[in-house]
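Case study 2.
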Amino acid sequence: MTDSYLYAAARTPFGRFSGALAGVRPDDLAALAVRSVLAKAPELDPAAIGDVVWGNANGAGEDNRNVGRMAVLLAGLPTSVPATTVNRLCGSSLDAAIIGSRAIETGDADIVLTGGVESMSRAPWVLPKPSRAFPAGDVTAVSTTLGWRLVNPGMPKEWTVSLGEANEQLAERFTVSRERQDEFAARSHRLADAAWTDGFYDDLVVPVETDAKGSTLARDEGIRPGSTPEKLAGLKPAFRPDGVITAGNASPLSDGASAVLLGSGAAADRIGTAPLARVAGRGVFALDPQDFGFAPVEAANRALKRAGITWSDVSAVELNEAFAVQSLACVDAWGIDPAVVNTKGGAIALGHPLGASGGRILGTLAHRLKESGERWGLAAICIGVGQALAVVLENVTGYGTGNDTANNTANDTANDTEAAR
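Prediction:
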């Protein structure tokens, strides 16, 4: 078994629902993310990519027919580069990175490009196929933008509540107040705006041309720098008349794409740059569908165990903010310092294009570790229908450059783990 490393990450800005990216096809967004991450690997011959693993949660519209393969072709890569599309809903692009890292570690591939895309603005309405020819009655068009649709009647009712109602239940279970949620949401906007102002995202985000006139979107569209807990407190509950979840303390519907380039330590020379981080541990967990927001707790714990570290070693956490309440419930359960979580803003401010969010948090985590010089970080994401994924990264930027970086870091980690045993 060899180690797998994250060499580069790139993403588009995330656009608001029906916003600046609504006119851009998801396969075009995906192709831009592919080209952008490969631009960070100046010596890499694209033909050397062993596989492309791409995440997408919808697949019902222009992202159908294996959007990963469409992205490869539209990006101008050789037709010999294979690609697959995976669907683990909100975790799809983090799942893609997990699959890619495993392929590298088992020797099935030396270089794997991963990522994901979602255009929630362009998600189509669908009609169920009739059970017989020429039906006389009406049929209902169903939106594929988000949540359950065409539900199997065999599913228990408690499993198929809306995502918002599921998190209202979570707020009751863990007594997470509206005030805490609004404070968390305002913090997300404040930190996201500060990160953009400080230039953190300049190397991660590539502008998208949004129309034939040359208009571009260069910054995440949903950030509201002026958000405060007091302003958010004035918003009406979205799911219950007396509820605590509002449009202000939940992630918005969004459009966007992200990409992550993975490789072995030996691939550094061909890629043309040193790796940023080693994939040190992975975790997956599932529970009752309505409790999905709490699933990252155990997924993260499992990833840490497989990395051979504990929470006391972790300096940076990227937790996808599907809802403020589920983020707070997870942070509380981990017992960690909230100050290390989402220091560059989170999905409440940046947006949550389902299939792209996992790649976003993984790329952001690698760049946070590089910026701080700290060693260990964790990315985690909750997933509808009761699942979660987590990945532990080890910063390798402080250990040297090139091939020796990857090899020396892997050896150091192996020695540290053996000594701990």
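The CA atoms of residues 89 and 379 lie 16 Å apart.
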